[in-house]
Amino acid sequence: MYTVLVAESETPEHRADRRERAGRSSGESYIATLEQMVPGIVAERIAPADEDSPVYTPEQIAAYDGVFLTGSPLHVYEDSPPVRRQIAFMRAVFASGVPSFGSCAGLQVAVAAAGGTVRPIPERLEAGIARRIASTMAGRDHPLLAGRPACWDAPAIHGDEVESLPEGALLLASNGVSAVQAAEIRHDGGLFWGVQYHPELSPEEIASALRGQANDLVEQGLALDEAAVERHADLLAALRDDPDSPALRWHLGVDGEFADMACRRRELRNFLDTLVAARHAQRRRD
């Protein structure tokens, strides 16, 4: 069975806040999703941004079938010790040759590690649902997006975005908020697939994030007041238990690509079935 690393981009303070608000850290959410998708998977959670985290060498990382980088409130463009440690870890992942996948801040960390740039979104954060994501010419036949229609919505909450991709990277999907919604990066012998949105999160977890940022949503003009945020969050949370509800889909303006759990997780499934499976087979042969 697959053995993978799940690297949290969160600091200890971020993890504590998320556990209080949502019941578990980003890495714990990732592992719960992976265990649902691949029963028997062995997923080890690590926190490379932490001051007391061990330094992982490419040789140590090479013992795994895949690496996952979580989302977090980490601002990759800030020259802070946690950011430097996280980027150093990602460079070791690239050098190891182990395939890696990242969502939200995970994508941004990989971009920065390979020479690209990240910035705050110029206008306002993308919160709740990333609308009308569309594949590029390169993305239409790319295995990361296999099964996706020409345009789809996805769970998302982020105030930062990729400003420029590293040299040689492939832009796979965009939308009206962020030009980089999905990308492939090849760097130093490694291969990374990433998305700006959150295929690993349930609508309920996105709802929890919205409640935690209600003030920001009101200040940025995305909601009239905190009560409006709460109503929207309640609809998202209800979708987890009743994804086929026509009323919930209508109120939220989503279809099965967002509401159906298997559809929401397409990119994770494609990464597991394509790159992690190939790496696992190679390790068994070796």
Structural account:
The protein is globular. The chain has a 9-stranded mixed beta sheet, with helices on both faces. Strands 5-8 form a two-stranded antiparallel ribbon. 43% of the residues lie in helices and 22% in strands. It has helices at residues 12-22, 26-37, 58-61, 81-96, 105-113, 137-140, 203-212, 214-219, 226-241, 246-252, 256-259, 261-264, 266-285; strands spanning 3-7, 42-46, 66-69, 100-103, 117-120, 126-135, 151-158, 160-164, 170-174, 182-187, 190-195. With 286 residues, the chain is of the alpha/beta class. The mean pLDDT is 95. The protein folds into 2 domains: 3-200 and 264-285, 3-Layer(aba) Sandwich (Rossmann fold); 203-256, no CATH class.
